[in-house]
Amino acid sequence: MKTLKLNFTIPEEVAEALKTRVSKRKRSAFVAAAVLDKLKELEQEQLRQALMEGYQARREEDTEINKKWEAATLEGWSR
């Protein structure tokens, strides 16, 4: 896999925790895995949001169809 060197700033506490828990030779892989996990989480959240919006739109459409269907099925029935 092709790699790219990046520079970014993180809180000091996070940097210290990383230094104490992950060996120097494995830090890049650790950070890459953490970023990838977060990106997947964001993607899933965006998908969930899109599905919710779709379901809500569909529910409104279904409600309209049901109203029309009820009116059509009750035509001709005397009450």
TrEMBL record:
<protein>
    <recommendedName>
        <fullName>Ribbon-helix-helix protein CopG domain-containing protein</fullName>
    </recommendedName>
</protein>
<dbReference type="GO" id="GO:0006355">
    <property type="term" value="P:regulation of DNA-templated transcription"/>
</dbReference>
<dbReference type="InterPro" id="IPR013321">
    <property type="entry name" value="Arc_rbn_hlx_hlx"/>
</dbReference>
